[in-house]
DNA sequence: GCTCCCGCAAGAGCACTGCTCTCGTTTATG
DNA sequence: CATAAACGAGAGCAGTGCTCTTGCGGGAGC
């Protein structure tokens, strides 16, 4: 009975997926704030109360969408990561950053759902943790593989305060073994700063100032990669040996 | 009659201020998403329709709160800027970053109103532009005064793409004369990245990873300052000449 | 001083929302 | 076959933003 899953169960999965699809559509149209269960139900030709058989509340529906969105972003990022598996570390870094930004621009409301204002009484359940770290994890992969290839320098900036070093120590041994606390701190900061670049552009804060957004972002992402210790692309002399010629 | 403003007008201003105060209180309590006109009116002992004599819509009320919040943040930042008027440029930079973060932590919902998910159909009116640039403007002030004191190096990272240089050229002559496009681009990016650091922490994205938040932020802010060309604090040898010994 | 008018608060009402409960019906299982 | 679980539909509750009408009262003009 667990093999074929009763016809009812399959119908349930089908309806669940249909609801999520329609919800995603309405999310893309109007944003999370105006996503209404009733509208989704109306569009699906059912009555609002029927939706509660599938999602106990509106927030639960949003959680499901959040997980899906994290995974969609994660897929886009991983794809960029693997497509450039043999490329220069810096090029990989910029490629992953570009993939994240592009996904955000293509799905602004979903991005806002992930990294925008959290809904008031809502605490992200653990289900969102695993897919939520896929983007920062992709960044660490680049750095670790660059390190393994002997192409990772020390991160830019001053020495890491002891308190931060001790704070990040457990993470370095559990999650990303082989990475120095300095580099991990730099990657975490770069991740947050990457989100800042994307959010600031997407939420309209650059409106009066920056118009060459893609180029501006690329330049910023490149500097971000360099700040974590990735070398400039091989064979290219940028004319400005920032991290020294050592 | 324009001098004293008729008693009616004064009463109107009084009520307007009272409404905004109560709205701000409810905003701090429940967040922008659940800010309801009816609740504000109820708390004030009036009926909801009466509020529409003062604010034509809920979004207009939010706009008023946004302007106030931008100014509150701007005041906090300017205070930090002037208190360290004679300090080291890098210390000033970090001080301003700290002031922004502290204000955000103290007023999370107001910060979210400014830099979080924009409300769906809402376009920020021009009233919000001037107070909205006070934070990035404070950052440019630090950099410009450091430059005037001969203590500003070139920003870290590769050369600025021509497209970005031309894009930012008008800004450099109109808004921040005397700043090179390279530095302006670095400051704009640093601003967005600063928002990223604050938002990521405030919106709970660091939850499982970083616990020594203040120190982590300070370190990241310091690196940010260095990335725009500010020198490390005088008299301190950090032992790592990142931007070269030129 | 009197009247007229306009700003104001109140209330009813509309079209929504999330969510709960009940009521038959359908479906799967013992 | 019978029983229990799952299901869709509908009514209903409390709340929302917003509009419209009504009546009151103070300020302005005669």
From TrEMBL, chains A, B:
PROSITE patterns in alphabetical order: HTH_TETR_2
Superkingdom to which the source organism belongs: Bacteria
Tagged with keyword Transcription: yes
Entry annotated with the keyword DNA-binding: yes
Pfam families the UniProt entry points to: TetR_C_33 (PF13305), TetR_N (PF00440)
Residue numbers spanned by region Disordered: 225-246
Name the UniProt record assigns to this protein: Transcriptional regulator, TetR family
Domain HTH tetR-type: start-end pairs: 13-73
Matching InterPro entries: Homeodomain-like_sf, HTH-type_TetR-like_transc_reg, HTH_TetR, MT1864/Rv1816-like_C, Tet_transcr_reg_TetR-rel_C_sf
DNA-binding region per UniProt: 36-55
Keywords: DNA-binding, Transcription, Transcription regulation
Upper lineage: Bacteria, Bacillati, Actinomycetota, Actinomycetes, Kitasatosporales
GO molecular function ontology, one term from the record: transcription cis-regulatory region binding
């Amino acid at each position: 009975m667990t093999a074929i899953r009763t016809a009812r169960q399959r119908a349930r999965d089908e309806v669940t997926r249909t609801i999520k699809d329609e919800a995603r559509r309405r999310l893309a149209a109007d944003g999370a704030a105006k996503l209404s269960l009733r509208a989704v139900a109306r569009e699906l030709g059912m009555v609002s109360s029927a939706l509660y058989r599938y999602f106990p509340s509106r927030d639960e529906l949003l959680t499901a969408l959040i997980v899906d969105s994290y995974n969609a972003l994660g897929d886009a990022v991983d794809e960029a990561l693997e497509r450039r598996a043999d490329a220069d570390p810096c090029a990989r870094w910029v490629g992953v950053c570009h993939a994240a930004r592009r996904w955000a621009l293509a799905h602004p409301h979903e991005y806002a759902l992930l990294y925008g204002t959290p809904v008031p009484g809502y605490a992200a359940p653990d289900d969102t943790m695993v897919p939520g770290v896929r983007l920062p994890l992709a960044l660490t992969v680049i750095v670790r593989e660059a390190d393994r290839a002997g192409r990772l320098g020390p991160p830019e900036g001053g020495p890491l305060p002891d308190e931060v070093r001790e704070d990040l120590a457990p993470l370095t041994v559990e999650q990303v073994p082989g990475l120095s606390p300095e580099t991990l701190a730099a990657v975490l900061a770069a991740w947050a700063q990457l989100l800042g670049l994307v959010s600031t552009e997407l939420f309209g804060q650059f409106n009066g100032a920056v118009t060459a957004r893609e180029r501006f972002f690329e330049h910023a992402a490149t500097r971000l990669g360099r700040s974590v210790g990735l070398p400039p692309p091989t064979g290219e002399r940028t004319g400005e040996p920032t991290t020294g010629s050592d």
